[in-house]
Amino acid sequence: MNSNKLLIKLSCLAVAICTAQSSFANEPWSQDRQWLLGDWNGQRQQLEQEGYKFTASIMSQGATNLDGGYNDTNTFKNAAQLALGANFDLEKIAGWKDTTANIVITKRDGNALTLEQIKDPRSSALGNSQEIYGRGKIWRLTQAWVKKGFADNTVQFKIGRMGMSDDFNSSQCEFQNLLLCGGQLGKSIGAIWYNWPVGIWGTNIKYQFSPEWTLGVGVYEVNPDNVKTEKDSDGFNLDMDNVKGATIPVELVWRPKLTIFNGLPGEYKVGALYSTAEANDIATTDKVHDGKHSFWLNTQQQLTQKGDDAKRGLYASFNVVVNDKATTAVQSTQQLALWYKGAFDSRPHDSIGFGIANYLVNDRYKDRQIATNTSRGYDEYDAFATDYVPVQRDELNVELNYSYQWSPAVMLRPNLQYIHQPAGVKEVDDAWVAGLSMRVNF
């Protein structure tokens, strides 16, 4: 799908939505319309009642640089994703108690402003102002799994093709900036931790041993073939011929009921992983480690409630990842986000978001870059030498946005982003970016 054509179509959609004066429930732009294409004369809801749920959506994220960055020539870039899915309640369909199956196919396209304008092209990327970009412009089998519940669903077993942050290190996504959206591990250890849209073979089991506490453990393949992007068939590669090891996450989840914040919902996670795949030392080329590890903390809490509507109010999340210093370029990521749902009575489903997130580069990796430049005769930043390696430190990302929820089917999210030290290179000017996310559920 051509991203420019997709952008034009979505832009026309946005204009139509914003200029509409009135609508009725049976019109495409109705504010209570669940799906843009409707419920198929009631057949869609009937299918869901029978256990068949079908989804189709397009997410588009545009971004333009307002000031700063490596190349401050004003440019607009758009990235997009098409997702097609089906969920099957196998208890309703086949009588298999507490069993569901899911399949999702995705296609990404477009370009990233951060890669082409914001960062020094000689640097490896850290953040991205369009989180939807990445893992190739190909079709992918993103999910194909079965989940079975036991003992009144207090034990759940899942197996198949899936992303790792579907079940571990997961977090909210109320932002367009990469580090402020979703699970954090894939942003810093993407060679062994695969997030959406990549699907890998894996399995996990979760045990809810009390009403507030759940313990989960999983095993997922480490297979470089899963992130190949040369052709569309790479996204449907199901063999395990090139498996290098396994990533094993463990996570403890606490969902307090009445103990804090007047019983408002919250979720607190602490987790760790170990990968059995060999990992190169980050400071030298002649040392290989038997594996690598990471730790994380995810918290999300509703802080206030507006009136009698349980969904309106102030929410906060705080997420931290700490990686193996011996093998990982990004030592740590930290994220703090706030968003308020339903600030205006006339717009109860809209939200205002503000987030700040940071990549902290490993000192051992930075020292290696400095040593490489010294060996090539550079003792300071050179903006033109092709063999100069920009020294990377930390990168700070900030975003302010407004999510305009026209209906359950259509969402627009204009946003303003600030990037300090793009790709961690202090010699690159801080950048201001304007963005617009659009999501349409068909």
Q: Write the CATH fold name.
A: Porin
Q: How are the strands of the largest sheet arranged? A: 1-2-3-4-5-6-7-8-9-12-13-14-15-16-17-18
Radius of gyration: 23 Å
Overall average residue pLDDT: 91
Number of domains: 1
CATH superfamily: Carbohydrate-selective porin OprB
Distance between the termini: 17 Å
Element string (H = helix, E = strand): HHEEHEHEEHEEEEEEEEEEHEEE
Q: What's the shape?
A: globular
Question: SS-based structural class?
Answer: mainly beta
Structure report:
- The chain has helices at residues 3-19, 43-49, 90-94, 113-118, 185-188, 363-375, and strands at 52-67, 76-89, 99-110, 139-150, 155-162, 200-210, 213-222, 245-254, 266-275, 279-280, 288-289, 292-302, 313-323, 330-341, 351-361, 394-407, 410-420, 431-441.
- The protein has 6 helices and 18 strands.
- The model is unreliable at 3-25 (pLDDT under 50).
- It has one domain (3-20, 38-441): Porin (Beta Barrel).
- The strands form 2 sheets. A 16-stranded antiparallel barrel has the order 1-2-3-4-5-6-7-8-9-12-13-14-15-16-17-18. It has a two-stranded antiparallel ribbon with strand order 10-11.
- It is mainly β.
Write a short abstract of this structure.
The protein is 12% helix and 43% strand.
Can you give keywords for this protein?
single chain, 442 residues, Porin, two-stranded antiparallel ribbon, 18 strands, disordered N terminus, Carb-sel_porin_OprB, OprB_sf, signal
